[in-house]
Amino acid sequence: MEASPCPLEVEFSNQIAALLAPPSSKSIQEYYDGLLHETKSHFIRVEFNENGKGVFSNRDFKEEHLVLKDQMLVAAQHSSNKVDCFVCSRCFCYIGSVEVQIGRKLYLESLGLTTMDCDHQSEDQSFLQENDDETGSSAHKNNSFSMDVLQLLMDGNLFLPYSKQFTLPTIVACPGGCEEEHYCSKLCADIDWDTVHSLLCTGKTSDSFRQAALVKFTEHANRTNDIFILAAKVISFTILRYRRLKRSYLEGSKQPILNEAEGQSNLCILSEAWKPVAMGFKRRWWDCIALPDDIDSCQEASFRMQIRDLAFTSLQLLKEAIFDVECAPCILQESTAW
Ligand SMILES: [Zn+2]
Ligand SMILES: [Zn+2]
Predict the structure, then answer these.
(1) ipTM surpassing 0.90, yes or no?
(2) Ligand 2 center to residue 62 CA distance, Å?
(3) Which of 10, 87, 180, 313 lies deepest, with the highest CB count within 10 Å?
């Protein structure tokens, strides 16, 4: 395999190897015991062996009984879905109102934005587009709604029959003031801000250099593969968790950290911050991505290198925006897959 194009990967090779090494059985056990304790999931146990992990209930349960409500670490709405559904950026429930959902979708379609435009490769989406064309129902082509009506729907000044029976949470804006993220509640907005979004926000709280760098990163991801958006969230999640852990470590520590021990101590904190991802990490994205049908198996090695180089380009763009030298080894895990 060719050498990595990334100089950081050479500089931090030992630290990266430590972060990507499979966690020990003891560490896995401790992590899940802690998680179950934290979430008060007393009737659940996690068992694991070399083949994988399994979640078991310790007691009988009936149909529709909630056994476990798991937390998402990070998630992203597919760009092709954003025209159709207006959802909370953290918990992904519908927000606004039925009128806002319908008005916004028709409005965006009237601007020429369709799910097809947002997704360059998906066969499913081209199927949708073809169907639209056949039936002549594409709002883009035959938009018979006036802008005034759509505006009334989006502003909440026009009501559709029975929509009050399907109320949705009021829209909460991003605390950083960007237009990309919206929430179902202040709670979701605050948690997303603290755990992921504050480093990726392009709103007024972010300086103009970072805003421009993030816009370039997002445009590249939308043009190539939006897994990079999810990867950026993983990195942001890890950096923010690292900073919180380090703050509490320094506050709790009576001894000042000596210079020579600082690097080691930072790596320990970074490993702890990375742990939730490490528990699910299997292989790097370019090593496990499925080979497309039109790529012959003899071209597999060069295909995987192309994918790795694409990830490297994305990483360069992201680094411009959110690089943190203490978390450098983790930013190289941008393309993790689990
Ligand atoms: Zn929410
Ligand atoms: Zn924001």
Answers:
(1) yes
(2) 41
(3) 87
Range of the domain at 283: 7-74+209-337
User: Does 94 score more than 60 pLDDT?
Assistant: yes
**Residue 237: its H or E element:** helix 227-252
Does residue 201 lie in a domain region?
A: no
pLDDT attached to residue 156: 86
Burial of 213 (0-12, 13-18, 19+ CB in 10 A): buried
**Could you give the number of structural domains in the chain?**
2
Q: Which residues are within 8 A (CB) of 286 and not within 5 positions of it... i.e. 6 or more apart?
A: 304, 305, 307, 308, 311, 335
Is it the case that residue 147 has pLDDT exceeding 90?
no
For ligand 1, the distance from its centroid to the CA atom of residue 108, given in whole angstroms, is: 23
Distance 184 CA to ligand 1 centre (A): 4
Q: Is the pLDDT of residue 122 over 90?
A: no
Residue 145 scores a pLDDT above 80: no
Residue 65 has pLDDT above 70, yes or no: yes
Find the 97 Cα to ligand 1 centroid distance in Å: 14
| Same domain (yes/no): 69, 85 | no
pLDDT for the residue 144: 62
Q: Where are the beta strands (DSSP E) in the chain?
A: 44-49, 52-57, 172-173, 182-183, 283-284, 336-337
Q: Which of 319, 322, 326 is nearest to 243 (CA)?
A: 326
Alpha carbon of 8 to ligand 1 centroid (Å): 36
pLDDT grade, residue 126 (50/70/90)?
very low
Under 8 Å between Cβ of 221 and 228: yes
Determine the distance separating the centroid of ligand 2 and the alpha carbon of 168, expressed in angstroms.
21
For ligand 1, the distance from its centroid to the CA atom of residue 92, given in whole angstroms, is: 6
Q: How far is ligand 2, taken at its centre, from the CA of residue 226, in Å? A: 18
Q: Which residues pair with 173 in a beta bridge?
A: 182
Residue 308: inside a domain: yes
Is pLDDT at 273 greater than 90 in this prediction?
Answer: yes
* Environment of ion ligand 2 (residues, CB < 5 A): 174, 176, 178, 181, 201, 203
Distance 168 CA to ligand 1 centre (A): 11
Q: Cα(166) to centroid of ligand 2, in Å?
A: 28
